[in-house]
């Protein structure tokens, strides 16, 4: 079993943290988390993970609440690709939405 972690800066004040655990090319678990910088602290705003034994998305709000949503794939390899594609395509929207919630 092997775990890989890395960060990817998207823009000033936005980054993605990724942690993947796999064995023989098969994903056992993962976290793909979009974070934004607010007053010198990083806050998670969208997270895809395999906690609870299934792949899902957590939408994290500034008040500490979170909304769990299922995603349309069950295979962890596909789910990881789905998560990475979604954050790459929609990170601007997620950041903007979080900014509106802060007001």
Strand content: over 45%
The mean pLDDT is 94
The spatial strand order of the largest sheet comes to 1-2-3-4-5-6
Total strands? 6
End-to-end C-alpha gap: 44 Å
Order of helices and strands: EEEEEEH
The helix tally amounts to: 1
How large, in whole angstroms, is the Cα Rg?
14 Å
Please render the helix and strand layout as text.
Layout: E1 2-11, E2 14-23, E3 26-38, E4 41-49, E5 56-60, E6 66-70, H1 76-102
Antiparallel strand pairs: 1-2, 2-3, 3-4, 4-5, 5-6
Account of the protein in words:
With 103 residues, this protein is of the alpha+beta class. It has one helix and six strands, in the order ββββββα. The chain has one helix spanning 76-102; strands at 2-11, 14-23, 26-38, 41-49, 56-60, 66-70. Strands 1-2-3-4-5-6 form a six-stranded antiparallel beta sheet, with helices on one face. It is globular and about 45 Å long.
């Amino acid at each position: 079993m092997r775990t890989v972690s890395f960060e990817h800066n998207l823009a000033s004040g936005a980054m993605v943290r990724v942690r993947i655990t796999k064995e023989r090319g098969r994903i056992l678990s993962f976290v793909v988390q979009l974070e934004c910088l607010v007053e010198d602290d990083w806050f998670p705003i969208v997270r895809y993970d395999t906690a609870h034994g299934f792949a899902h998305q957590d939408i994290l709000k500034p008040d500490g609440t979170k909304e769990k949503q299922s995603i349309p794939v069950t295979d962890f390899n596909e789910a990881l690709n789905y998560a990475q594609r979604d954050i790459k395509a929609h990170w601007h929207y997620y950041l903007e939405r979080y900014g509106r919630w802060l007001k």
